[in-house]
Design brief:
Blueprint (H helix, E strand, L loop, with lengths): L1 E5 L5 H10 L3 E5 L7 H6 L2 E2 L3 H7 L2 E4 L4 H9 E2 L2 E2 L10 E4 L5 H12 L4 E4 L2 E2 L1 H7 L2 E5 L3 H4 L3 H7 E6 L5 H30 L3 H9 L6 H11 L9 H18 L4 H18 L7 H5 L2
Parallel strand pairs: 1-2, 1-4, 2-3, 4-7, 7-8, 10-11
Antiparallel strand pairs: 5-6, 9-10
Helix pairs in contact: 1-6, 1-8, 4-5, 9-11, 9-12, 9-13, 10-11, 12-13
Length: 289
């Protein structure tokens, strides 16, 4: 297939690279020319702009930091036309970004006016999972709608969830991050407490990893935490953004969210203190002695 890809940052680049390595043609765009150079070396073609990309592909993947950027890429912004300026009726856009379900529904309605279908398909599994092609992909569409695109989506993730309705992928992604990011905040508190008690972080990781305190995040980040290495994969600022979206979802449903609210305050404090571009586990920098 000939695939478009927009947004080749920490998550987008390895996902796009795996699509190319799976044998698909790719036309790629990122606001930063240097962000596509490695994909071009792998065989992708860089589009001059978003309408140019949309003119040559019938399926496009987006991996973008927030819904404001997603909207600008799809609809355009002053002086910068978006994908819809070059799209054809029948084109399809899978948005791999983490955004609110309401924003996806609004944007999908605008795209539908031009005959273009936009589907939420957020991913989870960290940068290491993006490199390995083992992400979970949460798709707001039926199995029947997803089936023709599995050769592409399967290059990104080994777990494809066709969730049936538009926006449901966003809901599941926010629920996932609600659990993962609050759990990470507790893990960071525990590691900071261990520091104060003189227990090596590697020992904490070894014991928790084989006990009921184990988690996906601990398994993926244990070496970095032990080394006090907070090099970014998924930024503190993005964790704060996702928890803010999850809390808004909880509020709209009338659900209590005390634990997530407190975790959000910690990520916000870390961001305010200049730690926003660390890995989200860099919350520990705020808490450690």
């Amino acid at each position: 297939m000939h695939v478009g890809f927009v947004g080749t940052g920490n998550m987008g680049f390895p996902m796009a690279a795996n699509v190319v390595k799976a044998g698909h043609r790719m036309t790629v765009y990122d606001a930063r020319p240097e962000a596509t150079s490695e994909l071009e070396r792998l065989g992708a073609t860089r589009a001059a702009d978003l309408p140019s990309l949309a003119r040559v592909v019938r399926m496009t993947l987006l991996s973008l930091p927030n819904e404001r950027v997603v909207e600008a890429v799809v609809l355009g912004a002053p002086g910068a036309p978006g994908l819809l300026a070059g799209a054809q009726p029948g084109d399809l856009v899978f948005d791999l970004s983490t955004v609110s379900p309401d924003s996806t529904r609004r944007l999908a309605a605008r795209a539908a006016d031009r005959g273009v279908r936009l589907i939420d398909a957020p991913v989870s599994g960290s940068v290491s999972g993006a490199r390995a092609g083992t992400l979970a992909v949460m798709i707001g569409a039926s199995e029947q709608d997803v089936a023709p695109w599995k050769p592409v989506l399967g290059a990104i993730g080994t777990n494809l969830f066709a969730l049936g309705e538009l926006g449901r992928g966003n809901v599941l992604k926010l629920l996932n991050n609600y659990v993962a990011l609050t759990g990470q905040a507790v893990l960071c508190e525990a590691m900071a407490l261990a520091d104060r008690l003189g227990v090596p972080r590697a020992t904490v990781a070894d014991v928790l990893g084989k006990s009921s305190g184990g988690s996906f995040i601990l398994e993926r980040k244990r070496a970095a935490l032990a080394a006090r290495d907070y090099s970014p994969g998924f930024f503190v600022d993005l964790a704060l953004k996702d928890l803010t979206l999850a809390l808004a979802l909880a509020e709209s449903a009338g659900a209590r969210a005390e634990v997530a609210r407190q975790a959000s305050r910690l990520y916000a404090e870390a961001s305010q203190k200049g730690l926003g571009t660390l890995d989200s586990s860099g919350l520990l920098r705020l808490l450690e002695p």
